[in-house]
Amino acid sequence: MGLNALQGVRVIDLSHVIAGPTASHYLALEGAEVIKVEKPGQGDILRGGPRDLLDDRLPAGFAAINLGKRSLALNLKQARGRELLQQLVATADVFIENFRPGAVARLGFDYDAVRALRPDIVYASISGFGQEGAWGPRAAYDHVVQSAIGMGMLQGLEGEEPMKVGFPVVDTATGMVGAQAILAALLRRFREGRGAYLDISMAQAGLQLMWPDAARAAFNGHDAPRVGNRGFSGSPGAATFRCADGWISTAGNTMRQFRALCEVLGLPGLPDDPSLIDQAALQRGGFLVAADPQRLHAQLAAAMSVCAVDVLESRLAEREVPCAKLRRLSEVVALAQQGNVMTLPVRKTHYAHGVMTDFGPGYKADRQDEAPLDPAPRLGQHTVQILQSIGLDTAQIDALVAAGTVGV
To answer: Which end of the chain has fewer CB atoms < 10 Å from its terminal CB, N or C?
Structure first.
């Protein structure tokens, strides 16, 4: 589980869907005890996701970010349910919520209320646009935030329709930023004994992903050009091309790389053609500049169109030209599990209806393979044990089940 650095840390997680659970996912991977508080009978909305079930009400997408957590099914609309959560909060180190701003206060668990129960709590509020400002109350989903913060207008080419990133990148980034912020707050807490209030938003996380472009826009008021599948360097050898049986992206940015690219393609004289390559720009160093971008791209595209993509990828890699065949995600996952393609710890978790593969915390620690984690919890799977940990006996728990306060 990564470095297991958070062993002994208790996290109360009221969040749902992707952003908040991703934050607590990274804490669980570092050894924290994460108690996922869910609504009895329903649970996290991701439990009702696509029917690629690993177990009862456990879709793979839900399980991926809830490995190793414990599920407490608790009705917070009942006074007794809120009392039980208060008892748990008093034992916690971290509290995470991702309700719309103001909603958690109506339940009685805003920062001030939670801090009264645990003064050194690390409290993380995750939302679309933050707790402050006119946009704060707005509901938010990943593609909506992509549109709001300018991300959608960076994809594609000038004059074409906007295009969102093809997976919930902002949700995932928010979880990563949230975990980083919580870790920093815990480090300060261990050193100084002070808790923290963290206002984490999808908008902030999305802007972090675009920060070099956002910083330039803030400086000069200009947007970055929409380059589509061309490389960000602007070099003519940095683009995506169709091959005879697939697609390939190349990054022949320097003259050495570009010359090797052209030699593999059977175009050895092209780099020295002043009608195609700006020779004066070459003397200044840096990346290549095309003298006639359209004609140059057309020649490269024509040469690649007759190449077998796997052969071309291999030959270019041998010549140290950065390149990659465009693969589907399913192909990449299959390759990764071979164990000889890249540094990527692979872990298998067994469920009733199959095995789920995951790749750990995003890094390999101490050159060790990832240790197994408990499977993602069924709804209310750990209700009894969690309530017992705060002093309730079997008769009391049975009464709470009968009253609909908790689910098991």
So the answer is: C
